[in-house]
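As noted in the main text, all predictions were made from sequence alone. Below is one such record, for Enoyl-CoA hydratase/isomerase family protein.
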Amino acid sequence: MSEEAITYEVDDGVAWVTINRPDARNALNAAAREGLFAATHRFNADDSAKVMVLTGAGDRAFCAGGDLKEMSETALTVPPPDFAPQFGRNIDVIKPTIAAVNGVAFAGGFLLAQQCDLVVAAEHATFAVSEVKVGRGSPWAAPLSWLLPPRLALQILLTGDPISAERAREVGMVNEVVPAAELRARTQELAVRIASNAPLSVLAAKRTAYLSAEYPLARAYELAEDIWEPVYLSADAQEGPTAFREKRTPVWKGR
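Prediction:
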């Protein structure tokens, strides 16, 4: 992994993955893209990490998108499907992910926030799919009209204009908006709450939430039953009620 472009640290079961190019507004050059793939693979294999938080260094930018200077130098035309990590599309991440948006999230930065399961944003953060302003494309924005009302998704895509963190929260793209100084602590608190839950239930809950984006409701119900059956049959499913009866904290085994 490119340590200069991406950092990885685990804090109380939470893996913090940071794009570390603050002078370039954390733009995604080749080193950052490769580092993000590597960090995601590391998280997937890291049993000590239950939740990933993706953020950017500094307080100006989460990620300003692709590195336009590099794109110009390489005369990039159509980016390949694995140009940058897209959770759930070109790299599977079964554990929960949270974007801690500490500034602008434009273009590829919007992509990264969009693909995370939850988003916590600093009050000064802004979001934009700015490709129409520079003649580029955003095929990765296909899920946007599932995440947002279609007319708002169209406005974001057609104008390229940014929306504020508070507006993003109002329409359901952002879970929480917090003062910048509290972003790390509040995101960590949310991630630890998730990490403390029964791990098999957490993984199943994430899979269930995305079913209706891909399947008709009747089929989604059927698949959800299949997803949850092994959870019901697990030792943890007995541990939860037992711990409640014994008035103690559950000890999850993940099996």
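The chain has a mean pLDDT of 93. The chain has two domains: 6-195, 199-245. These features were considered when defining construct boundaries for the mutagenesis experiments described in Section 2.9.
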